[in-house]
Description:
Blueprint: H1 3-6, H2 26-36, E1 40-42, E2 49-51, H3 53-72, E3 76-77, E4 83-85, H4 86-89, H5 93-99, E5 105-113, E6 119-131, H6 136-146, E7 155-164, E8 178-188, H7 191-211, E9 218-221, E10 233-240, E11 246-254, H8 258-263, E12 266-268, E13 274-276, E14 278-285, H9 287-296, E15 313-318, H10 325-340, E16 343-344, E17 347-348, E18 351-353, H11 360-370, E19 374-379, H12 380-385, E20 387-392, E21 401-404, H13 405-433, E22 435-438, H14 441-448, E23 462-466, H15 471-481, E24 484-489, E25 496-497, E26 504-505, E27 508-512
Parallel strand pairs: 3-7, 15-18, 15-19, 22-23
Antiparallel strand pairs: 1-2, 4-6, 5-6, 7-8, 8-14, 9-10, 9-24, 10-11, 11-14, 12-13, 16-17, 19-20, 20-21, 23-27, 24-27, 25-26
The structure holds one RNA strand of 77 nucleotides.
Amino acid sequence: MCISSILPTMAKQAKTAITPTRAENYPEWYQQVVKRSDLAENSAVRGCMVIKPWGCALWENYQQVLNGMFKATGHKNAYFPLFIPKRFLEKEAEHVEGFAKECAVVTHHRLEAGPDGTLVPSGELEEPLIIRPTSETIIGDAFSRWIESYRDLPLLINQWANVVRWEMRTRLFLRTSEFLWQEGHTAHASSEEAMEETERMLDVYADFAENWMAMPVITGEKTAAERFPGAIRTLCIEAMMQDRKALQSGTSHFLGQNFAKAQDITYQSEEGKLEHCWTTSWGVSTRLIGAMVMTHADDDGLRLPPRLAPSQIVILPMTSRADDPEAVLNFCRKIADDLRVIPYHGRHIEVEIDERDLRGGEKNWQWVRRGVPIRLEVGQRDMAADSVFMARRDQGHKDKQTIERTAFVSRVHDILEEIQANLYDQAIAFRKNHSCEIDSEEDFRAYFAPPSGEPTPPHGGFAWAHFCGDEDVEKRINDELSVTVRCIPLADGEPGTCIFTGKPSLKRVVWAKSY
RNA sequence: CGGGGCGUAGCUCAGCUUGGUAGAGCGCCUGUUUUGGGAACAGGAGGUCGCAGGUUCGAAUCCUGUCGCCCCGACCA
Length: 515
């Protein structure tokens, strides 16, 4: 559909809070949702974003839950420097190759007044410092000193940090020059143990994505072409966005002994032999917020899964026509107090009362756009009937219902869980509708052929097809169709024959266009 | 780094072709009427038109240079 064909009938269509809609222009819709839901905005610095309070509160909840999961699996937090000496990065050849092109480099440590009031860098550093694009090397340096004996293993460390990758093109949350993330780094005495750790942390990510973000993911392994620089194996979780593209949402790497050898991370075994450690690294970033937006948001803005929402409930007091506005407010405060003591997934239900002096409609739509799971409109009528008027973000914005106050308080936990489940079910149904098994190259090409239209409308999806693993074929398909192997699923599959070469294939792999 | 586009009020943009006192909508402030759903009316604040040169009596407008941003590719979490 092109926009010009929509305009004449626009008046008849339901007004949406976000313009354009997903169908009209998906990338622009995404940017608008992020901005209009108050998550973040572009900053004065190229490619960097300002995360606003609403987005920051959301990220804090991600951190809190993930941090708990990391602790529960035996990891401890530490913090390493932002700067990495250049020689550290030079140690692992493949690693340098992978990141060198996108590193910010600090070469001076002082500014001096130049002509016309400008500032000129001065005091050149003897060795340039690289702003970390990831911390394998600087953490590996610490590990090489911390680990002496098999008794020091496994060493399980996580850090919450910002990293910088000087990307060519950026998009809020999905790819920014600076982003927030956590990176886990572990060292083990054996290959098997390290591989178990790699799989365990992938499971943690999948658990978080599905049970907290309500975002279905496929767990799998990357092909060599998509592997992390320096890794032996890269495991990942892949999710489908509403334009049917895949988004890599988390990765867990088995690094073998590559980094241990490059950085001299050794231990003395029980038998007294000096051995190299086996290491892993794994990370998720603020990209997960972008993933949530593109999984759940609709044409009216964000839809937050209750378990991670900064506030599960907002109360909108309708005081303008009340005989006694203060009484209505007190009624609202009482409801909030009753709700705030209800436990909800390790926290308590968070309630906001929006007493701002704004018109009802304006205020209401702000919270719709921000994606709060439940809105309660409470006025004199409700107070008189001892009830609340509830709107759920997973339902149409006119499907509101009156619920007796005490019934609402006792049911609210279940309602939130229902919303959480609904979001998940809708996402998984969407993925199912746009996934299919493909058994010939011809069908494959037809599946991914873009329909006409400017901008390109959503098309394709996840194609489950047999593939022999030939790297040249993979590259050719990427060049011709912009489609890549998102992952080789970890789940069991039936053997078959490659749709491109006719050679044997162990199982179907997932092909898709991706971010 | 290639290809395209754009820098004018807080935001979105018109004005530029054909040089002559800086515009609109939204937002913001004040007032009145409103208010169970994205209000109406009236008044008001707010801009040396990205920057630097040049042409001219006179430049947002023409010329040259420069910086920045956005979009599409290549690259990537």
